[in-house]
Amino acid sequence: MAYEFERKHRVAVLGGGPGGYEAALTGAQLGAEVTLVERAGVGGSAVITDVVPSKSLIATAEAAIAVRESHQLGVQFYSKTDGDKPVRPEVAVNLAAVNKRLLSLAREQSEDMRTTLEEAGVRIVSGEGRLDGPNALIVSTAQGEEGTDFDRIEADTVVVSVGASPRMLDSAMPDGERILTWTQLYNLRAIPEHLIVVGSGVTGAEFASAYRALGAKVTLVSSRDQVLPGEDADAAGVIERVFKRNGMTVLSKSRADSVERVGESVVVTLSDGRTVEGSHCLMAVGSIPNTSGIGLRGAGVQLTESGHIRVNRVARTSIPSIYAAGDCTNFMPLASVASMQGRNALFHALGDAVTPIQLRNVAANIFTQPEIATVGWTQKQIEDGEADGEIYKLPLKVNPRAKMMGIKDGFVKLFARPGSGTVIGGVIVAPKASELIFPLALAVEHRLTVDQVARAFTVYPSLTGSISDAARAMHTVNQ
């Protein structure tokens, strides 16, 4: 008797960042034959030069703040001189050791992810890849004196997850020493004497916050009225006040025209003619997708004017066999979203159950001190009439646990439908807001009412108590 075996579905993934990693792992778990092409290492820039190292740096900054401010809780550090007199020591940060640690963590995370893929049966190819039509990749790998070797990988499904790179300006080209992108900061051996950060979006604000906490003098150049334009105005206001209180110089409505290196210094020239001199400059003026020259247009994939790949809510492009995930797409540039896109792409391609992404339900966080976490509709959208909602804001300083911890800045803000009380969004500004936002994300995802949120028990005392307190307060609003 002759048996016929069905050929495995072949999947080729270009780029091993969060989206590509999850696509490859999901495909292998669902029984597909998966090949992942990655030029830098599994995890991509998110693990190697972005999320993992930057958040590790921020964790160090938080530790430095905790030590410096511990006296507010009655904890004091002293050493003794030869005369047996107490001397309060300064908090010192060894940036070379910090950077060595965080880059080691990034490599370790990358290797762990690679091992997971290999154990799942994914074939990993190191090299530069590009599309060769809608069902194949061409991969070039360096072969030393023998030249370059090319490999053609045919596939039923292709997933593109090539990420994005820091945007560079001709008038402020990074040199990797004094004028830097955020991927080059980890080469620094010592805390910058005076770091000028150009750009007050999420990346600029996070690094400005971290380096000020590490002890650097920081000047933040913001072209807008307020830092973090586009974020919740109340939350951005808290962060800007904390920045200034901590000694940071914030130059609002100030656009940088050029950045020049002058010896061991940098000079930033603003559009109004003013100049700012510092020891280093971080350019945080956005990113561009790595979609140029990889065969997308030749394969018929539609791109936006900015070069991002157009995808739908299951990560499918304009070509049925090609999916895309991560910062190279026109979706929200978050690692969590990239991962979900990668999973959804393979669920959809292989006929498994898939839930299309609702961007409204995505929880996001800004890792300043304090953090800002958001989910759902925004206050501006409610005020502009795009959504029907009631707003309630509760200052964190009235929370008993916050008082015990010495927390004075921050708040919990809830948005709910009039009448029904259905939670449609929220904002939390607090230490570890990234951990506190999850109950609100659940409420938005599952359409819970403020009464249902309020009925859940919270630990006393706890910061989460402010969430239930805010929900309880909205019960009277929705009578």
UniProtKB/TrEMBL annotation:
NAD(+) binds at residues 199-206, 286. Residues 10-342 form the FAD/NAD(P)-binding domain. This is NAD(P)H dehydrogenase (quinone). FAD binds at residues 55, 129, 327. Signal peptide: none annotated. Homotetramer. Gene3D superfamilies: 3.30.390.30, FAD/NAD(P)-binding domain. InterPro entries: FAD/NAD-bd_sf, FAD/NAD-binding_dom, FAD/NAD-linked_Rdtase_dimer_sf, Pyr_nuc-diS_OxRdtase, Pyr_nucl-diS_OxRdtase_dimer. It comes from Klugiella xanthotipulae. The keyword Cell division does not apply.
